[in-house]
Amino acid sequence: MNDRATARRRRLAVALLVVGLVAGAAAVLLWSATRSALGGVPMSTAPVSAPTAAPVTPTPSPNPVASPAAPTPAPLQDIAGIPVHVTVLQQGVPLIDADVNQIQLNGDGWLSPDEGQAGWYGPPQWETVPGDLSDYRGIIVGHNVTGYGTKDVFYDLGQVRAGDSVVLTYALQVGGYATAGFTVTQDARSAPKQDVVAQAATTYKWVWQSDAPERALSLFSCDLDAPHIDGHSVDNWIVTAERVS
User: Fold this and answer.
1) What is the mean pLDDT of residues 176-203?
2) How far, in Å, CA of 7 to CA of 120, rounded?
């Protein structure tokens, strides 16, 4: 393992260990395409030929015309900007809709986004911009409740299901905005915080890394239904998504 990978792994371990509890709020640990249903298609009965009709053999065209090939979609490109807003849609209805600020570990060693906002864990401590091609996933975290006990921006993260969509809006370096679409790859999963840390290179590698470079994203918040210690949840909701546009 080279020095850079080792440093990244150490930062990951530190971030995971310290991002657990925030005073007065639930802990935050680094962890659509709209579904449609097709009804039955009405079918008319097949026409009945007259009894005396002779079978007709179609004459092949001397110069058959090939069907045009479907256009190949352009490959996805990195976006020269930073994420500033995240929306998670389920059947076209927003479950999450929040501004995003870039965050780092604070002086106390916490990764804590402001109330009412999600936090993108970005450079220099975590180098992946969500949606860029990388061996490591982009990371966005959010609280589920505020210090006053009211719902915060990631309160419904545990309701996210495979096939839902994530839309990120970016502020571009050249000015203006752009968006990227992601598809959620599996239902939100609840996982013990300590295991996500201790098994980051094995069982929970899917949370942080990919086997090959891809444009992937992980969203994290607390699981309020999990057991609590000293008033804080021991588990996290984790949602993973892959960029599709």
Assistant:
1) 95
2) 19
